[in-house]
UniProtKB/TrEMBL annotation:
Protein name: Uncharacterized protein
InterPro entries: Isoprenoid_synthase_dom_sf
Pfam families: Terpene_syn_C_2
Length: 143
């Protein structure tokens, strides 16, 4: 498969910050339970979610950059699931999506899967300190 290179004409965070974000994210992928094998972690890290976060949020630092990195890494890992056997199981996919929407709606159900737990972690950090109106708009972007 040919590797496509995208030229993003705006600055990213500097290298020491990227290194920290990459190290954090690698640990988060494992500690959150989202990915359970070194090969899966290496695959997501090869997509450079920390670099995506740094380019899309060039002024983010510390917890904000780490949150953005985890968000993009979660999205990359979750999206990758739909390219495999799940692509042929729309009813199962519908149930998975409904579980994630329930997290956005704060329905009180505990997340069951590692993907749900990782998404809950990202979502809770994302909405921290935000108004109910902002939370509703952000949740609507996922549904």
């Amino acid at each position: 498969m040919e590797r496509v290179v995208f030229d993003l004409p705006f600055p990213a965070a500097e290298l020491p910050v990227l290194t920290e974000a990459a190290q954090w994210h690698r640990r988060w992928l494992v500690d959150s339970g989202l990915l359970d094998s070194p090969a899966a972690v290496d695959r997501v890290m090869s997509w450079a979610p920390h670099r995506c976060a740094a380019h899309f949020h060039p002024y983010a630092r510390g917890p904000e950059l780490l949150l953005a990195t985890d968000f993009y890494g979660w999205m990359m890992a979750a999206d990758g699931q739909f390219d495999g056997p799940l692509a042929d199981r729309p009813d199962h996919v519908r149930r998975l999506i409904r579980r994630h929407v329930a997290i956005l709606e704060a329905d009180g159900r505990s997340p069951l899967s590692p993907a749900e737990k990782a998404f809950t972690d990202v979502w809770e950090r994302l909405i921290e300190g935000m108004s109910p109106a902002w939370r509703a708009r952000a949740a609507a972007c996922f549904t």
